[in-house]
Design a protein that fits this description.
Length: 315
């Protein structure tokens, strides 16, 4: 159990539903009587009425199954501390969350809402009139090379919303493709904020296409940009797929159908969920594309690739 009984925690538990958060992470909910399970983790049971869960494959401290509130769920499946989970979920409580509004303006590709495979409309946040916070955060705080950030802006896969957040975009294939995936990352280092935009197509996630023969799979867009920075100037030898959480690993299967693809590199976080994702992705890729070379590329000197990059540049 999370052990958090303050007013902020009570508001989170009252307003944030585990089933909604699980869907946004890319998990597939399966109805089991009055409970839900997850296709990707069939030992999980979610009680939507009480808004709690338990995981039969993991023992709890009292001898039963591990489980708890939505805060525990976020800690478990995002590998976050109690404080990190609370800061993340506070943004979803009514009155404190950053609002998402569509803002279609002419032919600006980054402001055109798309439709995902389920027919849901991708509602993109409004665009700010400058990129100062985004560049400062990514270049100075996250140590991403400015050339990488600028290329992502030039490809219209990154902009700053009216709240100063980074908005990362991915599109359907083709020059006039509609946006099908968008996620936000806050630029305020004192109040972390992460969120997928409503209407995302999780079969696509975030894809950075260099028309390469190698595909690099990372957990977050910032991790993918960190790998690009570390491998600069040869980063265009890979295409990059950022899952936005290991629960969305099925997106990998959408991109390995490209017959030009020869290798897949898996660079998820070096923690329990990241290591498990390597196993799951590798097994499923072998079943579908046994000809592909699979390379595990987990960070060694840090939990994730951005931590590796920041340590390298500040030591």
């Amino acid at each position: 159990m999370d052990g958090c009984g303050g007013s902020s925690c009570r508001r989170i538990k009252d307003h944030v539903r585990i089933v909604d958060y699980a869907r946004e992470m890319g998990f597939t909910l399966v109805r089991t009587g009055r409970y839900y399970s997850l296709k990707e983790h069939d030992s999980v049971r979610i009680d939507p009425r009480r808004n709690c869960f338990w995981r039969n494959s993991v023992p709890g401290k009292t001898g039963g199954a591990f489980g708890g509130s939505v805060i525990d769920f976020v800690m478990e499946f995002n590998s976050l501390s109690l404080g990190e989970a609370i800061r993340l979920l506070e943004n979803r409580v009514p009155g404190t969350a950053v609002e998402v509004t569509g803002n279609r303006q002419g032919k600006n590709r980054e402001n055109v809402s798309g439709t995902n495979g389920d027919g849901a409309v991708l509602k993109l946040p409004g665009k700010d009139n400058n990129m100062r916070k985004v560049f400062a955060y990514l270049v100075k705080t996250r140590c991403i090379r400015q050339e990488i950030v600028q290329e992502m802006v030039n490809r219209r896969q990154l902009y700053q919303d009216t709240h100063g957040n980074c908005v990362f975009l991915s599109y359907e294939s083709g020059e006039d493709g509609k946006a099908v995936f968008a996620c936000r990352r806050g630029t305020n280092t004192f109040k972390p904020f992460y969120s997928d935009v409503e209407g995302c197509d999780y079969s696509k996630c975030f894809y950075f296409d260099n028309q390469a023969e190698k595909l690099y799979v990372a957990e977050s867009v910032i991790d993918a940009m960190s790998v690009m920075t570390i491998r600069f100037p040869e980063y265009r030898k890979w295409n990059y797929l950022a899952l936005g959480g290991t629960g969305k690993w099925m997106a990998v299967m959408n991109y390995i159908t490209d017959p030009a693809l020869k290798e897949i590199w898996i660079g998820t976080d070096n923690d329990k969920s990241g290591q498990e994702a390597v196993r799951i992705i590798s097994e499923n890729v072998r079943k579908k594309r046994g000809d592909l070379t699979i390379i595990t590329d987990l960070p060694v000197k840090g939990k994730d690739w951005n931590e590796v990059l920041v340590r390298r540049d500040r030591t």
